[in-house]
Amino acid sequence: MVGLLFGLLAAYIAIIFVLILILHKTGVARRKVIFASSTLFGILSGLAVTLHGLGEGGYIFNFLGVLLGDQIYNFSIELIGDPHSSFAHYTIPWGLRIPQVWLFASVIAWSLIGILAQLTYNRIKSPPLAQ
């Protein structure tokens, strides 16, 4: 199972790297391209898992978005909705329901990863002046 997760992460990183190359060729600045490609990956993989669902291993498209989305969904039912209702799914807002929450969680998660990677890259490429 751990090997599968590392394999999926390697595939995600490879896809993001290809998106970085494509976006850089289209004129996106180096100081923004990692963030933009990670966000684009979050949108595309979130759409894939939302439209495909979890049947036949749909979590492979984006297991990070699925895991985070499921936690947001459960937390929303406990906090906002009525967890004792047999229709608890319908007691929370539409955007927090499955499968929509997978898309939103995917975009949030991969955007945050992209921000951290972009800030790290920018800091390495232009370190602060020594005083």
Q: Summary?
A:
The protein is mainly α. Helix content is 69%, strand content 0%.
Describe this entry's structure for a reader.
The protein has helices at residues 2-25, 30-52, 63-79, 100-125. The chain is mainly alpha-helical and 131 residues long. It has one domain (7-125). It starts with a helix and ends in a 6-residue tail after the last helix.
SSE inventory with pairings:
Blueprint: H1 2-25, H2 30-52, H3 63-79, H4 100-125
Helix pairs in contact: 1-2, 2-4, 3-4
Give the strand tally. 0
Output the radius of gyration: 18 Å
- Major sheet description: none
Number of helices: 4
Low-confidence stretches: none
Bin the strand percentage.
under 5%
Instruction: State the shape.
Output: elongated
User: How do the SSEs run, as a string of H and E?
Assistant: HHHH
- Mean pLDDT value: 91
Keywords, separated by commas or semicolons:
0% strand; 69% helix; single chain; 131 residues; mainly alpha
